[in-house]
Task: inverse folding
Protein backbone atom coordinates (compact mmCIF):
# COMPACT_ATOMS: atom_id res chain seq x y z
CA UNK A 1 0.00 0.00 0.00
CA UNK A 2 3.06 2.32 0.28
CA UNK A 3 3.58 2.36 -3.47
CA UNK A 4 6.65 0.08 -3.39
CA UNK A 5 6.54 -3.06 -5.53
CA UNK A 6 7.73 -6.38 -4.16
CA UNK A 7 10.17 -8.09 -6.50
CA UNK A 8 11.59 -11.57 -6.78
CA UNK A 9 15.16 -12.28 -7.92
CA UNK A 10 15.42 -14.92 -10.63
CA UNK A 11 18.45 -16.46 -12.34
CA UNK A 12 20.32 -13.93 -14.39
CA UNK A 13 19.63 -11.20 -11.78
CA UNK A 14 16.37 -10.23 -13.52
CA UNK A 15 13.83 -8.68 -11.14
CA UNK A 16 10.22 -9.68 -11.72
CA UNK A 17 7.33 -7.83 -10.06
CA UNK A 18 4.75 -9.87 -8.21
CA UNK A 19 1.29 -9.87 -9.82
CA UNK A 20 -1.22 -7.29 -8.57
CA UNK A 21 -3.26 -8.28 -5.53
CA UNK A 22 -7.01 -7.70 -5.32
CA UNK A 23 -8.10 -5.49 -2.46
CA UNK A 24 -11.84 -5.71 -1.82
CA UNK A 25 -14.44 -5.38 0.90
CA UNK A 26 -18.15 -6.09 1.26
CA UNK A 27 -20.56 -4.41 3.63
CA UNK A 28 -24.30 -4.82 4.12
CA UNK A 29 -26.57 -2.84 6.43
CA UNK A 30 -30.25 -3.01 7.35
CA UNK A 31 -30.69 0.75 6.90
CA UNK A 32 -32.99 2.91 8.99
CA UNK A 33 -36.47 1.79 7.93
CA UNK A 34 -36.57 -1.92 7.07
CA UNK A 35 -37.26 -4.54 9.74
CA UNK A 36 -34.77 -7.03 8.30
CA UNK A 37 -31.89 -7.16 5.87
CA UNK A 38 -32.85 -8.91 2.63
CA UNK A 39 -29.51 -8.39 0.85
CA UNK A 40 -26.70 -10.92 0.52
CA UNK A 41 -23.05 -10.41 -0.45
CA UNK A 42 -19.98 -12.58 -1.02
CA UNK A 43 -16.37 -11.84 -1.94
CA UNK A 44 -13.46 -14.18 -2.65
CA UNK A 45 -10.35 -11.98 -3.04
CA UNK A 46 -8.15 -14.91 -4.01
CA UNK A 47 -10.30 -15.87 -6.97
CA UNK A 48 -11.63 -12.42 -7.78
CA UNK A 49 -15.29 -13.35 -7.29
CA UNK A 50 -17.76 -10.64 -6.23
CA UNK A 51 -21.46 -11.49 -5.78
CA UNK A 52 -24.39 -9.36 -4.56
CA UNK A 53 -28.14 -9.97 -4.41
CA UNK A 54 -31.06 -7.88 -3.21
CA UNK A 55 -34.28 -9.64 -2.18
CA UNK A 56 -37.24 -7.98 -3.85
CA UNK A 57 -39.35 -5.68 -1.72
CA UNK A 58 -43.05 -6.47 -1.70
CA UNK A 59 -42.40 -10.22 -1.83
CA UNK A 60 -42.15 -12.49 1.18
CA UNK A 61 -38.86 -14.19 2.06
CA UNK A 62 -36.67 -11.73 0.20
CA UNK A 63 -33.84 -12.64 2.55
CA UNK A 64 -34.15 -16.30 1.55
CA UNK A 65 -34.26 -15.41 -2.15
CA UNK A 66 -31.07 -13.34 -2.00
CA UNK A 67 -29.28 -15.98 0.09
CA UNK A 68 -30.26 -18.67 -2.43
CA UNK A 69 -29.13 -16.47 -5.30
CA UNK A 70 -25.63 -15.99 -3.89
CA UNK A 71 -25.31 -19.55 -2.60
CA UNK A 72 -26.29 -21.30 -5.84
CA UNK A 73 -24.27 -18.93 -8.02
CA UNK A 74 -21.27 -19.55 -5.79
CA UNK A 75 -21.75 -23.32 -5.98
CA UNK A 76 -21.66 -23.21 -9.80
CA UNK A 77 -18.47 -21.12 -9.74
CA UNK A 78 -16.82 -23.51 -7.31
CA UNK A 79 -17.76 -26.58 -9.35
CA UNK A 80 -16.31 -25.00 -12.46
CA UNK A 81 -13.12 -24.01 -10.61
CA UNK A 82 -12.64 -27.60 -9.42
CA UNK A 83 -12.90 -28.88 -13.00
CA UNK A 84 -10.48 -26.28 -14.37
CA UNK A 85 -6.91 -27.57 -14.44
CA UNK A 86 -5.15 -24.23 -14.84
CA UNK A 87 -7.77 -22.02 -13.17
CA UNK A 88 -8.30 -20.08 -16.40
CA UNK A 89 -11.86 -20.76 -17.43
CA UNK A 90 -12.78 -20.09 -21.05
CA UNK A 91 -16.23 -18.55 -21.30
CA UNK A 92 -16.42 -16.71 -18.00
CA UNK A 93 -19.43 -14.66 -19.07
CA UNK A 94 -21.23 -17.89 -19.95
CA UNK A 95 -20.24 -19.33 -16.58
CA UNK A 96 -21.75 -16.36 -14.76
CA UNK A 97 -24.91 -16.62 -16.84
CA UNK A 98 -25.15 -20.32 -15.97
CA UNK A 99 -24.69 -19.51 -12.28
CA UNK A 100 -27.62 -17.07 -12.53
CA UNK A 101 -29.74 -19.79 -14.14
CA UNK A 102 -28.92 -22.10 -11.22
CA UNK A 103 -29.90 -19.38 -8.74
CA UNK A 104 -33.16 -18.75 -10.57
CA UNK A 105 -34.03 -22.44 -10.56
CA UNK A 106 -33.29 -22.68 -6.83
CA UNK A 107 -35.59 -19.77 -6.01
CA UNK A 108 -38.34 -21.14 -8.27
CA UNK A 109 -38.04 -24.51 -6.53
CA UNK A 110 -38.32 -22.85 -3.11
CA UNK A 111 -41.45 -21.03 -4.27
CA UNK A 112 -43.01 -24.29 -5.50
CA UNK A 113 -42.27 -26.05 -2.22
CA UNK A 114 -43.60 -23.28 0.05
CA UNK A 115 -46.86 -24.16 1.75
CA UNK A 116 -48.46 -20.85 0.86
CA UNK A 117 -46.92 -20.81 -2.61
CA UNK A 118 -45.35 -17.49 -1.61
CA UNK A 119 -43.67 -15.47 -4.32
CA UNK A 120 -40.07 -14.53 -3.75
CA UNK A 121 -37.48 -12.89 -5.94
CA UNK A 122 -34.10 -11.23 -6.02
CA UNK A 123 -31.82 -9.10 -8.10
CA UNK A 124 -28.27 -10.29 -8.76
CA UNK A 125 -25.00 -8.80 -9.94
CA UNK A 126 -21.76 -10.74 -10.12
CA UNK A 127 -18.24 -9.94 -11.30
CA UNK A 128 -15.20 -12.11 -11.99
CA UNK A 129 -12.00 -10.07 -11.81
CA UNK A 130 -8.51 -10.37 -13.19
CA UNK A 131 -5.97 -7.55 -13.20
CA UNK A 132 -6.64 -6.87 -16.88
CA UNK A 133 -10.42 -7.33 -17.08
CA UNK A 134 -13.76 -7.72 -15.35
CA UNK A 135 -16.45 -10.11 -16.60
CA UNK A 136 -19.91 -9.44 -15.21
CA UNK A 137 -23.55 -10.49 -15.34
CA UNK A 138 -26.65 -9.05 -13.75
CA UNK A 139 -30.43 -9.23 -13.43
CA UNK A 140 -32.58 -6.51 -11.91
CA UNK A 141 -31.43 -3.11 -10.67
CA UNK A 142 -28.41 -3.91 -8.51
CA UNK A 143 -25.54 -2.16 -10.23
CA UNK A 144 -21.90 -2.46 -11.26
CA UNK A 145 -19.85 0.73 -11.57
CA UNK A 146 -16.35 1.44 -12.85
CA UNK A 147 -14.39 4.40 -11.49
CA UNK A 148 -11.57 5.49 -13.80
CA UNK A 149 -9.59 8.71 -13.38
CA UNK A 150 -12.36 10.14 -11.22
CA UNK A 151 -15.15 9.40 -13.73
CA UNK A 152 -17.89 6.97 -12.65
CA UNK A 153 -19.45 4.76 -15.34
CA UNK A 154 -22.35 2.36 -14.83
CA UNK A 155 -21.45 -0.89 -16.58
CA UNK A 156 -24.74 -2.63 -15.81
CA UNK A 157 -28.11 -1.54 -17.17
CA UNK A 158 -31.12 -1.46 -14.87
CA UNK A 159 -33.88 -3.92 -15.74
CA UNK A 160 -36.66 -1.55 -14.73
CA UNK A 161 -39.69 0.03 -16.34
CA UNK A 162 -38.23 3.47 -15.71
CA UNK A 163 -34.99 2.54 -17.53
CA UNK A 164 -37.08 1.47 -20.53
CA UNK A 165 -38.75 4.89 -20.44
CA UNK A 166 -35.31 6.54 -20.41
CA UNK A 167 -34.12 4.38 -23.32
CA UNK A 168 -37.24 5.34 -25.29
CA UNK A 169 -36.65 9.03 -24.63
CA UNK A 170 -39.77 9.40 -22.50
CA UNK A 171 -37.81 10.29 -19.34
CA UNK A 172 -34.49 12.02 -18.70
CA UNK A 173 -31.92 10.39 -16.44
CA UNK A 174 -32.47 13.10 -13.83
CA UNK A 175 -36.24 12.51 -13.89
CA UNK A 176 -35.70 8.77 -13.54
CA UNK A 177 -33.64 9.22 -10.38
CA UNK A 178 -36.69 10.28 -8.36
CA UNK A 179 -39.44 8.57 -10.33
CA UNK A 180 -41.95 6.80 -8.00
CA UNK A 181 -41.78 3.61 -10.11
CA UNK A 182 -38.00 3.43 -10.42
CA UNK A 183 -37.98 0.17 -8.43
CA UNK A 184 -40.46 -1.64 -10.69
CA UNK A 185 -38.39 -4.44 -12.22
CA UNK A 186 -38.80 -5.96 -15.67
CA UNK A 187 -36.45 -8.87 -14.87
CA UNK A 188 -35.50 -10.67 -11.69
CA UNK A 189 -34.62 -14.04 -10.23
CA UNK A 190 -37.49 -16.28 -9.19
CA UNK A 191 -40.21 -14.60 -11.26
CA UNK A 192 -40.23 -16.83 -14.34
CA UNK A 193 -38.88 -20.31 -15.08
CA UNK A 194 -36.27 -18.78 -17.38
CA UNK A 195 -34.31 -15.60 -16.84
CA UNK A 196 -32.04 -13.76 -19.27
CA UNK A 197 -29.12 -11.98 -17.62
CA UNK A 198 -27.10 -9.26 -19.29
CA UNK A 199 -23.38 -10.04 -19.49
CA UNK A 200 -20.34 -8.01 -20.41
CA UNK A 201 -16.56 -7.72 -20.32
CA UNK A 202 -14.52 -4.58 -19.72
CA UNK A 203 -10.75 -4.18 -19.90
CA UNK A 204 -9.24 -2.79 -16.70
CA UNK A 205 -6.47 -0.25 -16.32
CA UNK A 206 -4.17 0.51 -13.42
CA UNK A 207 -5.99 2.29 -10.56
CA UNK A 208 -9.48 1.39 -11.82
CA UNK A 209 -11.98 0.78 -9.05
CA UNK A 210 -15.19 -1.27 -9.11
CA UNK A 211 -18.38 -1.01 -7.09
CA UNK A 212 -21.25 -3.48 -6.88
CA UNK A 213 -24.25 -2.17 -4.98
CA UNK A 214 -27.93 -2.55 -4.22
CA UNK A 215 -30.40 0.26 -4.87
CA UNK A 216 -30.27 1.06 -1.17
CA UNK A 217 -27.12 2.99 -2.04
CA UNK A 218 -28.03 4.53 -5.38
CA UNK A 219 -31.48 5.70 -4.24
CA UNK A 220 -29.91 7.59 -1.34
CA UNK A 221 -26.60 8.87 -2.75
CA UNK A 222 -26.04 10.57 -6.10
CA UNK A 223 -23.34 9.35 -8.46
CA UNK A 224 -21.14 12.41 -7.98
CA UNK A 225 -20.83 11.67 -4.26
CA UNK A 226 -20.40 7.94 -4.92
CA UNK A 227 -17.45 8.74 -7.21
CA UNK A 228 -15.76 10.85 -4.52
CA UNK A 229 -16.23 8.24 -1.80
CA UNK A 230 -15.19 5.32 -4.03
CA UNK A 231 -12.04 7.16 -5.08
CA UNK A 232 -10.86 7.92 -1.55
CA UNK A 233 -7.29 6.84 -0.78
CA UNK A 234 -8.24 4.54 2.07
CA UNK A 235 -8.43 0.79 2.69
CA UNK A 236 -11.29 -0.99 0.93
CA UNK A 237 -13.10 -1.67 4.21
CA UNK A 238 -13.14 2.04 5.02
CA UNK A 239 -14.35 2.96 1.53
CA UNK A 240 -17.20 0.43 1.78
CA UNK A 241 -18.17 1.75 5.20
CA UNK A 242 -18.19 5.35 3.98
CA UNK A 243 -20.61 4.46 1.17
CA UNK A 244 -22.98 2.74 3.60
CA UNK A 245 -22.73 5.67 6.01
CA UNK A 246 -23.62 8.09 3.21
CA UNK A 247 -26.73 6.06 2.33
CA UNK A 248 -27.81 6.03 5.95
CA UNK A 249 -27.23 9.77 6.18
CA UNK A 250 -29.36 10.20 3.05
CA UNK A 251 -32.33 8.51 4.69
CA UNK A 252 -31.47 4.78 4.71
CA UNK A 253 -34.89 3.85 3.41
CA UNK A 254 -33.75 0.42 2.19
CA UNK A 255 -31.14 -2.20 2.96
CA UNK A 256 -27.72 -1.03 1.80
CA UNK A 257 -25.11 -3.37 0.33
CA UNK A 258 -21.82 -2.54 -1.36
CA UNK A 259 -18.74 -4.36 -2.63
CA UNK A 260 -15.68 -2.33 -3.56
CA UNK A 261 -12.62 -3.76 -5.32
CA UNK A 262 -9.40 -2.76 -7.02
CA UNK A 263 -5.97 -4.21 -7.74
CA UNK A 264 -2.87 -3.09 -5.87
CA UNK A 265 0.53 -3.55 -7.47
Result:
Amino acid sequence: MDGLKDTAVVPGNAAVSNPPVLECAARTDIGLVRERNEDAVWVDPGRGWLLLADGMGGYRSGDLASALAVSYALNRLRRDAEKSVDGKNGDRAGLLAASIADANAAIRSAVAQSLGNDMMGSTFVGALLRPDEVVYAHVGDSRLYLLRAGALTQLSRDHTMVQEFVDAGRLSSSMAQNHPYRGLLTRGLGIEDDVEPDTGTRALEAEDRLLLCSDGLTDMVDEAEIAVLLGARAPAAEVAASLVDAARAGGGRDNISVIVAWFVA
